[in-house]
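Reopening this ticket.

The earlier resolution said the output was attached, but the attachment link was broken on my side. Pasting everything inline this time so it's all in one place.
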Amino acid sequence: MKTILCYGDSNTWGYNPANGGRIPYHKRWTGLLQNKIGPEFKVIEEGLNGRTTVWDDPLHGGFKNGRNYLIPCLASHRPIDIVILFLGTNDLKMRFSLSASEITSGIRVLVEDISKSNAGMNDKAPKICLVAPPIISNIPDSSRFFEEYENSTEKSRKLGDYFNEVAQEYQCDFLDASKVVRVSKMDGIHLDEEGHLELGNALTKKVENILK
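Inline output:
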């Protein structure tokens, strides 16, 4: 059995922009990926609302820092064939005051940690599929996310190209989510069920190509 670890934030956890709840597993991109690639694969969903790349959240503490849990997570689930790394959106929050290049530096640290690990088969590093987050756009004024992500659209627009450079640097696979999905109009940040379906389809193709 091959193992795929999906390491991400609320768009991996399945935050529902319609009601703040959780989209059902079989409609989340992780569940759709599991269903499409079949029982010979084990898809592990490691999504956490508010998870950053490498930054402690001053409001929610160190457990939101994606690096703090990454190494023990890799060790817990090894041997892993593919790590799908899907982070960056929470780094765009106003309280972090990060540029797009600084966010990219954070994702580079995580890619390097995975590439230097022995969490793959035969104590080698697992393969990596780096996913750039979808572009934040048109957050409603009434949304609680409006001030939190104010002026983040242009920075989020840069992440696809920047993350692709990291993928090329480390010779890992890459998917720019903004090319295949759009965020929900309900909050301008999260994927709705249609977005999860589209991302699940795109990542299924990506995983199949990686494992050829």
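Reporter confirms the inline version is readable. The two ends are 15 Å apart (CA to CA). The longest helix spans residues 193-210.
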